[in-house]
Specification:
Elements (H helix, E strand, L loop, with lengths): L2 E5 L9 H8 L4 E8 L10 H21 L4 E5 L1 H12 L3 E5 L4 H16 L3 E5 L21 H9 L40 H6 L4 H15 L3 H4 L12 H5 L5 H10 L6 H23 L21 H9 L5 H13 L4 H14 L4 H11 L5 H12 L14 H8 L4 H6 L19 H6 L15 H16 L2
Bound molecules: flavin-adenine dinucleotide (FAD).
Enzyme class: lyase
EC number: 4.1.99.3
Pfam families: DNA_photolyase (PF00875), FAD_binding_7 (PF03441)
Length: 476
């Protein structure tokens, strides 16, 4: 009987345990992708990721076709689709790579049970993350809550396995199966096409991921420790969306950095791996605390006096807060589907502390606009910024957006790229244009309140208000 390989968060053919296992059996393989219509509404992709998914499936389908087998596309409830493919083809085995969103874990367990009753076996493999979140435990037996010991466990003794080779070819089933047309799934923008800026930056799919990895290893891993903090430099790997869709695995990345060990400074390699392990830590938190995306990890924050979002939230979303580094970040996100990590921290802190807006509004906006939106990293990072998370940055540490700009974008190059209306402001005032003498503003063609907004809150006052809100929550 043929074997079904159900592709989910693993849109790749290399280092894909389910696919490799299927190809080795010597029987026909049916690669299947299901656009799941589940009633719980979980994991509904944001707009930017729908665009990405369309192109990633296209890339996967073309790769699989060149290996000998078409990718079958079906929309519907996963169990019903699987039942139907099983009954038409007589398949007795479904292979998949595990996914870790709590609602996915529950759904997969249900599917496994239901298919077993029909005599269909599921084989579930690892691949999306380097560790199994329910198995990795502290010495006292519980899940980790603090990053440093989690990292220590990784760096001492846990050597991730080497990646698996891509199967050379797959045996087709020899009958034609019903498959949807990708175009009919409506994943691309309908209406104004906002995707040009994203398309200019990214190549979804496995080949795009490998190209990014190779370029990173060749040009950016040496120096990563310093360059990763400078948003005007292309100093990071930009592998995040490829990881989010499983076009590349952390095993492949870890192993590739190991191969570069002799050519790059150890400190850079370690710093990069520590970042990869933040992703692991986020999954660890999510699996062990399933409501991480919606509820405060630290329930003290349930009493936090958040303000109604209103116009302030839309000013933040549109990059019109009057703080140039914040606005540059939010516009980079809108235009390219990605934002530099340092700037994510600055805009996140600004929303939660300067504007006193609940982190869940920020998380939601990021979810809709990021190409790398990831249920674990997004919610863990937002809670980290808000101070409500595990091992979080304390709430009372409030980033000053002017000083952060001066420190990480001293020449203003990053700001000028995304906030062109400030292009002619001298570097000295690029992060606080309202303090530039009137003559400097007018020479630069800037009329605050007209060509560029005045700050929507005053830093010092906002800081004080945030601290008061925090003390109110603490009952002090
Ligand atoms: P690199 O610096 O090259 O890092 C390599 C990889 O390590 C990344 O691709 C990513 O998988 C992982 N990584 C790096 N930093 C972190 C981190 N702080 N937490 C978890 N994993 C990390 N990352 C996402 O992948 N999806 C999200 O939805 C997401 N939302 C975020 C929201 C906020 C408020 C903040 C502050 C950070 C968020 N991050 C998120 C983490 C981080 O900003 C991105 O992973 C990183 O900017 C991606 O760029 P890169 O691939 O070039 O990273």
């Amino acid at each position: 009987a043929p074997i079904i390989v159900w592709f989910r968060n693993d849109l790749r053919t290399g280092d894909n345990r389910a696919l490799s296992t299927g190809s080795r059996t010597g029987v026909p393989v049916i690669p299947l992708y299901i656009l799941e219509d589940e009633e719980d509404g979980s994991a509904t992709l944001g707009s930017a990721q729908k665009w990405w998914l369309h192109h990633s499936i296209e890339a996967l389908a073309s790769r699989l076709a060149s290996m000998g087998t078409p990718l079958i596309l079906r929309r519907g409830r996963a169990l019903e689709v699987l039942h139907s493919v099983v009954s038409v083809t007589g398949a007795r085995t479904v292979l998949w790579n595990r996914r870790y969103l709590p609602s996915h874990l529950a759904r997969d367990a249900e599917i496994q049970q239901a298919l077993q009753i029909d005599g269909v076996t599921i084989e579930s493999s690892e691949g999306h993350i380097l560790h199994e979140p329910t198995q990795m435990r502290t010495v006292s037996g519980g899940p980790y809550r603090v990053y440093t010991p989690f990292w220590r466990a990784f760096s001492s003794g846990m050597e991730p396995r080497p990646p698996l080779a891509r199967p050379e070819s797959l045996m087709p089933i020899g009958m034609s199966l019903q498959s949807d047309r990708l175009e009919d799934w409506g994943l691309l923008p309908n209406g104004p096409d906002w995707s040009a800026g994203i398309a200019a930056q990214w190549t979804p799919g496995e080949d795009g991921a490998i190209t990014r990895l190779d370029a990173f290893l060749a040009k950016r891993l040496a120096g990563y420790g310093e360059d990763r903090n400078v948003p005007s430099i292309d100093g990071t790997s930009r592998l995040s969306p490829h990881l989010a869709f499983g076009e590349i695995t952390p095993f492949q990345i870890w192993h590739a950095t190991e191969m570069s060990r002799d050519e790059v400074p150890t400190a850079d390699l370690q710093t990069f791996r520590k970042e990869l392990v933040w992703r692991e830590f986020s999954y660890h938190l999510l699996v062990n605390c399933p409501d991480l995306p919606t509820a405060n990890y630290n329930s003290d924050f349930d009493k936090f006096p958040w303000r109604e979002p209103g116009d302030l939230l839309s000013a933040w979303q549109r990059g019109r807060t009057g703080y140039p580094i914040v606005d540059a970040g939010m516009r980079q996100l809108w235009q390219t589907g990605w934002m530099h990590n340092r700037v994510r921290m600055i805009v996140g802190s600004f929303l939660v502390k300067h504007l006193l807006i609940d982190w869940r509004h920020g998380e939601k906006w990021f979810w809709d606009t990021l190409v790398d939106a990831d249920p674990a990293s997004n919610s863990a990072s937002w809670q980290w910024i808000a101070g409500s998370g595990a091992d979080a940055s304390p709430y009372f540490r409030i980033f000053n957006p002017i000083l952060q700009g001066e420190k990480f974008d001293p020449t203003g190059e990053y700001v000028k790229q995304f906030v062109p209306e400030l292009a002619d402001i001298p570097a000295k005032y690029i992060h606080n244009p309202w303090e530039a003498p009137a003559s400097v503003q007018s020479e630069a063609g800037v009329r605050l309140g007209e060509t560029y907004p005045r700050p929507i809150v005053e830093h010092r006052r906002a800081r004080e208000r945030a601290l008061n809100a925090y003390h109110a929550m603490k009952g002090k």
